[in-house]
Design goal:
By secondary structure, this protein is α/β, with parallel strands linked by helices. The protein folds into two domains: 153 residues, NAD(P)-binding Rossmann-like Domain (Rossmann fold); 172 residues, Dihydrodipicolinate Reductase, domain 2. Helices cover 32% and strands 26% of the residues. It contains eleven helices and 15 strands. A nine-stranded mixed sheet has the order 14-13-12-11-7-10-9-8-15. A six-stranded parallel sheet has the order 3-2-1-4-5-6, with helices on both faces. Helix 5 runs antiparallel to helix 11. It is globular, with a radius of gyration of 20 Å.
């Protein structure tokens, strides 16, 4: 195996912790530096970090041998860092992505690529000219059940898709640094932070929609962000495609992601609330539970990008144009909610 990629991680929150755990367990990576403004986290005290998916990482983390920076630019300038992994609040993605690309580093940036399509366009343009490779961490493209479902759809094993429905529901994510997720100016609300997973997967499964019609509501919860959205997509060849995303549910409500894809010969179903979670309902009473690869979207996406760097092959599963389009679709949904009209893409 090629030499491990030397990683510098910027931002130690929920996703930073997840990425740190994946890099630490990988033979393809070696974490050499981290950056965060919170000195307690740099000291290894991660007890304040929360999230919507359980993570068994220790509350006290051993950071021996890892350089610590309070300024992200110092990490980017570190000559040993080959890959900059950005897991900061969304509104900070563009600034530090552009800095890392300018410095010639490889770059993994958490989704979405930027807070606005205007910023995302600048990042995409810079990435195409940069020395290093860039990938945006749209983990659902790698999530085992979603990845296998795409293979089934593309193979047309069960015929054409007639209808596709996706849902992602959550209580308010109040665990973020300085409650940034609840600040719509920073996060974009549930539409841009949570629902964008399914926006991106719809694009991955069917291609960019031709138009979208969305309904939802603005709430004081996220200070101007959309807290609940239901979007209907116009996709050639698919009679119905919709995605719902919300984080205004009560605290006791368990995080849930799910989909039902109705094909000519079967229905493909997935839900984190079901057991087993992944099922194909065939004709009559035929029921199957397809096998899926081990791991989760986080470990599989990071391993994929590390392998791209080691083999010097640009990532194809997620491109910078894909990431840009996902933000553009999200903004089209926002416009549709505000105007009550169908928005062409």
């Amino acid at each position: 195996m090629a030499k491990p990629v030397k990683v510098g991680l910027i931002g130690v929150g929920f996703m930073g912790k997840m990425h740190f755990g994946v890099h630490s367990a990988s033979k393809r990576a070696k974490i050499v530096a981290i950056a965060d403004v919170d000195q307690k986290k740099l000291d290894g005290d991660w007890s304040s970090i929360g999230g919507n998916i359980d993570d068994a990482s220790a509350k006290k983390v051993n950071l021996k041998g890892i350089r610590k920076y309070t300024n992200a630019m110092d990490l980017i300038k570190d000559p040993e860092v080959e890959l900059v992994d950005i897991t900061l609040p969304t509104s900070m993605h563009a600034k530090w992505s552009l800095a890392a690309l300018k410095a010639g580093k490889h770059l993994l940036c958490e989704k979405p690529v930027a807070r606005t399509a205007k910023e995302a366009k600048k990042v995409a343009a810079a990435a195409k000219k940069a020395k290093g490779m860039m990938m945006v961490a749209h983990c659902i493209r790698f999530w085992p059940e979603y990845a296998v479902t795409r293979q089934l759809v593309k193979s047309k094993k069960y015929g054409k898709v007639l209808s596709a429905s996706f849902r992602r529901l959550s209580p308010a994510p109040t665990w973020g640094w300085q409650n940034w997720l609840m600040n719509g100016r920073m996060s974009g609300g549930a539409l841009l932070d949570l629902h964008i997973h399914d926006i991106d997967y719809v694009q991955y499964l069917f291609g960019k929609p031709k138009a979208v019609f969305a309904r939802g509501y603005l709430s004081k919860m996220s200070k101007g962000g959309i807290d609940h959205v239901v979007a209907n997509y116009v996709i050639p060849g698919v009679k119905q495609a919709m995605a719902e995303g919300a984080w205004g549910l009560e605290p006791a409500f368990p995080f849930e992601m799910s989909f039902n894809i109705v094909c000519q010969k079967a229905t493909i179903s997935f839900s984190t609330s079901s057991s087993p979670m992944f099922t194909v309902y065939g004709p009559g009473s035929k029921v199957e539970h397809p096998k899926v690869p081990a791991g989760d979207g986080y470990s599989l996406e990071i391993d994929y990008f590390l392998k791209c760097i080691q083999t010097k092959k640009k990532p194809k599963v997620v491109t910078v144009d894909d990431a840009l389009n996902s933000v553009r679709i999200a903004e089209a949904e926002f416009k549709s909610i505000k105007t009550g009209k169908i928005v062409k893409l």
